[in-house]
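User: Batch of two.

Assistant: Item 1 of 2:
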Amino acid sequence: IAAFLIVCCYVSFSQSTDGVKKFNVKSLVQQAQVQKTDWIKFLDEETVFAGVYLLKAGQKDDQPIHEYDEVYYVVAGESDFEAEETKIKITPGKIIFVKAGVDHHFLKITKDLELLVLFSKAKTGPKKITAEEFNTTELVKVGKPNENSWNPFVNKATMSFGLYQLPKALGGDSTLVHKWDEINFVTKGAGKFSVNGKDMDVSIGDIVYVKKGLGHYFHSLTSDFDVLIL
């Protein structure tokens, strides 16, 4: 609901089965710091790929122009951001969609940036926009207390990226099977995620890739649950 041709370093999965891979953003950031690299690509599939990108305060962002549409999620840090004529103030929880082929950079970094970056490998269309920003604080207000709600705030030819909110009182959702691959990123709560009948624990910061055609659902929620899905 989701990258860059810099230094690619593959990491081991915290949990992996056929068509399902689980990671944790905090662990990925720590691994990048230990390896003293600003970029780790942790997922590379037929239709999507993803990484974490780290920039220190005062550092220059010299990332190249990308050939794919992408989404940034700001885990931590503060800076400015420019994508051609579009200018955005970066704070934790900010989400940015960037069109393929657009020159863009993080500028005036005042607090170390930790960024989750998701890419769609689908062929992009004509450039009508350069970048769009969304704020998690505002997006969560759309949810309703008595029903599961899906808010696809990015709808492009290459991707759908949205916020799925599940109240604890409802306990989860029912089995879904999609015709597309997806990446789930938990931003609130904890519970279990079942894929093809196998359960895994999920909580804030967990990232789960699910290949198309696999039945999956969230259940046994311990609190209200929010997940960003590409």
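Item 2 of 2:
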Amino acid sequence: EYLTKFNSNAELARHRLISFGIDSARIIATPGDRVKINRTLTSALAFRKWLRTSSIHVKGINIFSMGPHARRTWMTFDKLLDKKYNIGIISVPDLHANTENKVLKTIRETLGILYYRLILLPY
């Protein structure tokens, strides 16, 4: 329902943060290409591209992520940004996951970390 008004999850997230009262001048959406897999990597690549072309001086970055996916998100951004920035990760709980689902998500994220570390992030 929300995505019908916005072109990307990044723009939706920006809108939500503004609705919570955060100054719109302090929030920049950097949407990546629409992909079915490797969305975290695609988001990090889009952000890196924005950093390289932006005139804004960035000292640090805080990233919001959900549950066990936060580790892979932090790892991906840290690797792609060449450890030049202080990167914080804010992991919010997945309120829709039950105990069985949480175990499966944790296993999936562990495999995802291995996949990213061995195959995707060496470049």
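The mean pLDDT is 83.
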